[in-house]
Amino acid sequence: MAALLPRVKRVSVVAGALLALWALSFGLSYADLGRVALPIALAIAVTKALLVVLFFMELLHERASMKVALVAALVLAATLIGLMVADVATREDAPPQSSPRTPS
Amino acid sequence: MSHAEHFESLEKQAHAARLGMWVFLGSEILLFGALFGLYASYRAHYPAELHEAMHHSEKVLGSLNTAILLGSSALVAASVEMLRADRRGLARLLLAGTMLLGLVFLLVKGLEYRSHVTAGFTPTSGEFWSLYYTMTGLHAVHVLIGIAVLSLMLFDLAPHRLEVGALYWHFVDIVWIFLWPLFYLA
């Protein structure tokens, strides 16, 4: 019971950080950042995801078996996405334009 | 609190349950990973189309939903802590709050879909919209399942059960953390 207060405090601090990053990302979306807009938005997303995984999902103090399960999945997903990106990046021609789009 | 017969202790049972959920989440990462890969290749092939279509996404509603899901993750994390400290009433309240925020998320998502369909944007309206409906739709199904899982936890409230349900909920939150910038912001 004595340990409750610091634990609730930790959850609140992480929640505050998540909402601050959310506000930062939302604010930046109105700035005209051009080509770096997406990398910055994704970097903020990765930071938020890390906060959730390490503190809310408690991976920081979790056993090695869980960490291995996550890292294995991430390596497999990175291989999958990496090969897809490599395919797209090295194609000589883009595929033909598809379906007619509805007027906007 | 008693443990299942085939486990030596509740601690080992809880560990096995968490490991099982992490392995399952690994398979979910691959499912969503394939779709994120598809997004990357569409973005490389049709940058102008995606950029143009993104101006029609409901940025304010989508951003509101991001905050709602982040808040719900915090509530369920707090609920787990309360339950560990045997504050069952508070834990129950926080868990109910989590589920309520999940329902609000789905309601807002529904409003977004309605607004898009009214404006003529359907899953067949081009690359952006087919990905948008597929990925956010699959995510919405996960939110719905998450609410169902958490509601089962309410009936038999125990830390070693709730922490597994909470892992799933946090994962669904993380998927949205990445969908938000890709479909609304940049």
Return Rg of chain A in Å. 20 Å
Instruction: Describe the sheet with the most strands of chain B.
Output: none
Cα(first) to Cα(last) distance of chain B is 49 Å
- What's the end-to-end separation of chain A, in Å? 59 Å
Q: Describe the biggest sheet of chain A?
A: none
The coarse overall form of chain A would be flat
> Biggest interface between protein chains, with counts per chain?
A-B, 58 and 61 residues
Q: Kindly state the mean pLDDT of chain B as a whole number?
A: 95
Task: Assign a percent range to the helix content of chain A.
Answer: 55-70%
Order of helices and strands of chain A: HHH
The portion of residues assigned to helices of chain B is over 70%
In total, the number of strands of chain A is: 0
What's the order of the H and E elements of chain B?
HHHHHH
**Average pLDDT across residues of chain A?**
89
Please state the overall shape of chain B, judged from the principal axes of the Cα atoms: elongated
Count of the domains of chain A:
2
The total strand number of chain B stands at: 0
Description:
The complex is a heterodimer of chains A (104) and B (186). Chain A has three helices and no strands. Chain A starts with a helix and ends in a 15-residue tail after the last helix. Chain A has two domains: 57 residues, no CATH class; 28 residues. In chain A, helix 1 packs antiparallel against helix 2. Chain A has 104 residues and is mainly alpha-helical. Helix content of chain B is 84%, strand content 0%. In chain B, helix 1 packs antiparallel against helix 5, helix 3 packs antiparallel against helix 4 and helix 5 runs antiparallel to helix 6. Chain B is elongated and about 60 Å long. The model of chain B has no long low-confidence stretch (mean pLDDT 95). Classes of the chains: A mainly alpha (104), B mainly alpha (186). At the A-B interface, helix 1, helix 2 and helix 3 of A face helix 1, helix 2, helix 3 and helix 6 of B.
